[in-house]
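Below is how a single chain appears once it has passed through the pipeline. First comes the sequence as given, then the structure the pipeline wrote out for it. We keep one example in the README because the format questions we get most often are answered faster by looking than by reading.
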Amino acid sequence: MNDTRNSQTLSNSNKNNNLDLEVKNLTKRFGGLTAVSDFNFELEKGAFVSLIGPNGAGKTTVFNLLTGVLKSDSGNIIFQGDNVTNLPPHLISARGIVRTFQNIRLLHGMNVIENIRAVFHNYLTYSFPSAILTSQVYQQQEKEMNAKIEQMINTFNLTEYRHTNVSDLAYGIQRKVEIVRAVAYNPKVLLLDEPTAGLTPTEADEIIKMVMDIKEKIGFSVIIVEHDMRLVMSVSERITVMDNGKVIAQGTPDEVQNNEDVIMAYLGKNSFRAKK
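Resulting structure:
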């Protein structure tokens, strides 16, 4: 196991101000199975990168390690100069690493506004008595929060669903709400785990457009795990390819697209070219 008790914060001299995330030799084993082996990765600030590979390659395990859902057996995760290896999920998300999941996890029984509103508890500073007495501080913070929610709903074209219970929404709209809720958390690094999974081609196109809008309008870094090569090739600045828990290729979309080993072994000879 990693011992990070004495290395939670790196010295300023060791910080790379151009990186949001630096992963060094990250490894995770489940019994005799090595799910992730010596995973090395760098994420520049403001970058949009994809993590791809066949089912079982270790992609979601990497996400679970980055967000504290799983503890690593060895290696380090450096986030903006700080060692966050094996911190609990709530501390990692509070620092700014936020994710979505393959299976949508919304608050059913609540509408779209209420689902987005739920993440703002991290930023509201008024006390319980202030809320009961509707103090000036309470009123001001509630006004600012409501304005931000409305802005996000309008930006991502969810206005007509704002008061709809999320359980009553089409699956593709639920996926949009989940992404917007993650963005509302004010991430510094956003991890999107298969955002087009289970969608129709039309719904997938809408998600692609939404992800590209995020890339253009919002300045945080994004790592996306995705099997839809249209999305990957459309939005990625760099791509990391995994198989059997190991990184087998890294580079620009063109470099990965033309890597014959990747094409033949993991994606099929015409996968990139057919879906580009």
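The chain has eleven helices and ten strands.

See the next section for the split statistics.
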